[in-house]
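Task 17 of the worksheet. Students: predict the tertiary structure of the chain below and write it out as structure tokens. Keep your answer in the requested format; marks are given for formatting as well as content.
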Amino acid sequence: MTNHDPPHRVTIETIDSNFWLTHAPLAKSAFMDAYAAISRVEDILTEAGELLDKLPSAIQTAILNHHNDPATLQHCLRWGLQAAKEIREDWPAVVAGIPCGEVPT
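Model answer:
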């Protein structure tokens, strides 16, 4: 399991106090609890991908052939992990309702 530090680009400290009153439905403790949960989701998806990668190549191919659609297990793990990482990195902006791609750096 990975220990994730809070995001560095937009942090609790960089969000002014009015944010908590007007934009966020979460209290600061709930904000960090939810952040920890997203971090755990990232850890679980990483572990799942590692387990899948440990399967013999022939078994991985058999899984792909059996479940051959645009949303294979491999595809879902890869893109689910990418989404979890992006959400974790931009967590304060997520809670603030700032769309992906519009997060200030």
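Marker's comment: Residues 25-96 form one domain. Residues 46 and 81 are 7 Å apart (CA to CA).
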